[in-house]
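Quick one, tokens below. Sequence please?
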């Protein structure tokens, strides 16, 4: 049942206005990279990387799926992600991986996505939640954050060498893949340790602390040495904390004016969860330390708060779309609600799953795949476009249509792209002979200055395409 509801949720979100969350140029990158790496691992060095490496699980899983049809690829990936979230929930709720707990969370999470999109189509909250079904959106870090919280609980009172080894390995590998894990999890974990020490006057969790903190900061050091892209991005793509706060609050204000139910769930669980966590902390100060049963209830609001505070301090909220930095919040809010249901002995798994499928099935059944109107209209197999049209087109045409990505200055955009694709066709490695330009988000006067006037113009799926009789040269 869980697999059915999760698959239907993926397709329903695609079919009801959130297709771009599954097929934009950011999200499809690991499939393009994964295919290159699976064919020749040396090709990893020909790619311009993202600020985060996203090696695990993004590259590893995407490489196995990259040859499949686009919709099937994303449905399988989304199902794998939800399954990982469910495994994390199971560890958080009962210190073990239980089939029943995994199934229950997967159904409730996928059902919630369907209900929320049905209630508030395209709202900012469900837009954020839709990204939790896709790669390259910090979703690997989301899954491993929940798993790590569960492992921290499991090792709180009775640390186990094997379990601690798994936790330490995950912290290193996932932090190296996506540094955001350190920002989300380590600060609230420090607070947890500090409160436990103050209340018990004993250093009881040194092995657990070593398993979480040392691998995280070790990965941070390694990433700082090898990942120059992140450093450049952090220095160039940020604003002041005050400016970042204004963007964040403005985005929330606009969403709340639309009565966005997903953001309502996030902030309800954050506020109420924070009160519960504070109460647990105050009680621990008069006792013998933090109890294992309270670890998850303290860490969940702590991680949610850290996911908001860290980007604000770094000035990363520059545009409304940067709300994706709190992408861990939708998943943790559902984990929190499921823990509440469990404590109240409320089980709505089966009715929720059935109702969600009934709501979603008509739209999901009518969905025939991503919108190809613009792509199928293109007059040739090689052309120019901006970042958002380049890899999306390469992915959806299985590399048969090659789009050379340009920046706003009409120069090669050397970011999240294979450097060889500025030299040869991605499909057959022949010499590039571009004969058209997708002009969307590119300035006409700059295009004309670089390439001259087109021989003709076409409207392809609502986007203007300039067509040239002779092949154009690739700018340097």
């Amino acid at each position: 049942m869980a697999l059915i509801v999760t698959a239907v949720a993926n397709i329903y979100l695609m079919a009801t206005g959130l297709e771009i969350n599954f097929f934009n140029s950011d999200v499809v990158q690991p499939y393009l990279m994964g295919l290159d790496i699976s064919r020749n691992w040396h090709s990893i060095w020909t790619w311009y990387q993202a600020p985060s490496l996203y090696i695990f699980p993004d590259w590893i899983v995407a490489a196995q799926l990259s040859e499949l049809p686009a919709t099937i690829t994303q449905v399988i990936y989304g199902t794998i992600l939800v399954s990982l979230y469910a495994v994390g929930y199971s560890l958080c709720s009962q210190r073990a991986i239980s089939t029943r707990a995994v199934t229950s969370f997967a159904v409730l999470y996928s059902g919630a996505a369907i209900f929320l999109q049905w209630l508030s189509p395209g709202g900012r909250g469900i837009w954020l939640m839709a990204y939790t079904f896709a790669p390259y959106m910090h979703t690997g870090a989301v899954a491993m954050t929940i798993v790590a919280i569960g492992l921290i609980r499991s090792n709180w009172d009775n640390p186990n060498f094997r379990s601690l080894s798994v936790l330490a390995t995950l912290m290193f590998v996932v932090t190296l893949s996506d540094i955001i894990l350190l920002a989300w999890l380590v600060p609230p974990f420090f607070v947890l340790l500090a409160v436990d020490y103050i209340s018990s006057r004993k250093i009881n969790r040194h092995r657990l602390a070593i398993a979480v903190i040392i691998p995280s900061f070790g990965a941070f050091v390694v990433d700082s040495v090898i990942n120059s892209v992140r450093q450049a991005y952090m220095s160039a793509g940020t604003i002041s904390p005050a400016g970042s706060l204004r963007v964040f609050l403005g985005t929330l204000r606009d969403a709340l004016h639309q009565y966005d139910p997903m953001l309502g769930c996030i902030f309800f669980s954050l506020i109420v969860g924070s009160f519960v966590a504070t109460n647990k902390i105050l009680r621990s100060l008069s006792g013998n330390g933090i109890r294992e049963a309270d670890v998850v209830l303290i860490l969940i609001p702590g991680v949610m708060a850290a996911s908001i505070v860290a980007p604000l301090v770094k000035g990363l909220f520059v545009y409304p779309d940067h709300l994706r930095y709190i992408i861990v919040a939708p998943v943790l809010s559902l984990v929190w609600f499921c823990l509440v249901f469990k404590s109240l002995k409320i089980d709505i798994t089966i009715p929720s799953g059935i109702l969600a499928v009934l709501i979603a099935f008509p739209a999901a059944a009518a969905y025939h795949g991503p919108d190809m109107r613009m792509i199928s209209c293109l007059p040739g197999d090689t052309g120019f476009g901006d970042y958002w049209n380049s890899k999306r087109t390469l992915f959806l045409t299985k590399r048969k249509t090659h789009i050379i990505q340009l920046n706003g200055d009409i120069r090669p955009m050397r970011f999240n792209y294979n450097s060889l694709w500025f030299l040869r066709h991605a499909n057959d490695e022949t010499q590039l002979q571009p004969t058209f330009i997708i002009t969307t988000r590119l300035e006409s006067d700059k295009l004309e200055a670089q390439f001259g006037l087109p021989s003709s113009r076409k409207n392809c799926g609502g986007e203007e395409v300039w067509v040239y009789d002779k092949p154009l040269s690739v700018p340097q």
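The chain has a mean pLDDT of 89. Strands lie at 47-48, 382-385, 402-405, 417-418, 436-438, 456-460, 463-467.
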